[in-house]
Amino acid sequence: MIYTVTFNPAIDYVVWTDRLEPGHINRARREAIQLGGKGINVSTMLLRLGVESVALGFVAGFTGQALETGLRRAGLRTEFIHLDRGTTRINVKVKGEEETEINGIGPDIGPEAVQALTDRLDRLKQGDILVLAGSVPASLPEDTYGRVLAGLTGKGVRTVVDARGELLRGALRHRPFLIKPNRAELESLFGRTLETEEEICACAAQLCRQGAEHVLVSLAGEGAILLDGRGEVHRLAAPGGQVRNSVGAGDAMVAGFLAGWLGTGSYEQALRLGVAAGSATAFSDAMASREDVERVLAELEKRPAERKIKK
User: Is 198 within 8 Å of 169 (Cβ atoms)?
Assistant: First the structure.
């Protein structure tokens, strides 16, 4: 079973407007409510690809109730921990000439709630997959992911980490099965601009030496690079299309990669389905449908096998 953890889920209020003028009344021409957070996005795409998962995390207040109810109606299995104080955050996404985001803070998560999550994760067994994705509230320490992974040592649980900064650094020593930084996150980790694929691959290789088994680097409109556990680099360019949405594309890539790997055992097919799911989401207003992913996948499958470089 795949389990996803979202420490700080959200209800996204998405507004489309022709122009955003600060200091003036702005009127929407379209709006939508989307339920998410990075781990929840992974579970949503897995569901659309026919792979079962359980979404874990923390919810609070009336917004938390609305998020949980909406996800269950959409068919997701959820086992959220309910907090006594605060409210699940609301994020505002304004799509005008440029994309503007105002992300909420979210509730504080106390030690009792963290222990409740730890107790739930203690029931994971060999062969399960745990996905840790996104940020944690300010009330939690920067080594939160590392602490979670330390509790799974020796259980045979494969772990996936999609985070930035110290959250990711703290997870590496626990040998995650997969990490998925994007180019900007790699640059932040290593403190320099990465202009070539060789530089990106060198940084990915360093992360492998620090503990990651596989490193999947998302490159937005340029596709993705995978450095696998055998030391081989797989490169796949993104398909052509109009980008309409950047939210959730990386999460969809993680879900597609896992679905592809579980279904075929092939890193090449896992990368191909990951890029298809991520690209299809970028071409959609929200998380892509299965039909949209399959349409993009069909285009990618017409291409020759991606280049491999032994590292």
Answer: no
